User: Fold this.
Amino acid sequence: MRFNVYVTLKRGVLDPQGKAVMDALHSLHFGEVRDVRVGKFIELNLDGLPEQEARARVEKMCQELLANPVIEEFRIEEVRA
Amino acid sequence: MRFNVYVTLKRGVLDPQGKAVMDALHSLHFGEVRDVRVGKFIELNLDGLPEQEARARVEKMCQELLANPVIEEFRIEEVRA
Assistant:
């Protein structure tokens, strides 16, 4: 079973990496870029668990390791084959 | 106009970060995890260009800065308000 996890900084949390990317884009003459936020995209492959249980496990993984719940939020998406 | 960009390692390219995350998940007793790949998720906000042109510009940004085309591939998704 495959899941995609998107980890992003919460609104309002400063994103220095996004700022650096935006500055780099500006110096490459992409002046139309107004804002950039950088997050993580994690593809997980799990050994067969029932779907409900698998999703709950992935949620637990996010809370314990993949995201920092103080400053980040996450979204889980099941990938259907 | 908002775009999401997903940058991932090409199939076959070794992902040491993904491997490290998988090992960490295993030691946290998530033994069901068989594979992990870690990529980047970039949210871009552009000042008003026509949609076609904006997408072409984002593609150029990916080729020039956001992704390393030798080892990475990218996917662009427009976010409709």
User: Anything to note?
Assistant: Chain A has a mean pLDDT of 95. The radius of gyration of chain A is 16 Å. The helical segments of chain A are 16-27, 51-66. Residues 51-66 of chain A form the longest helix (16 residues).
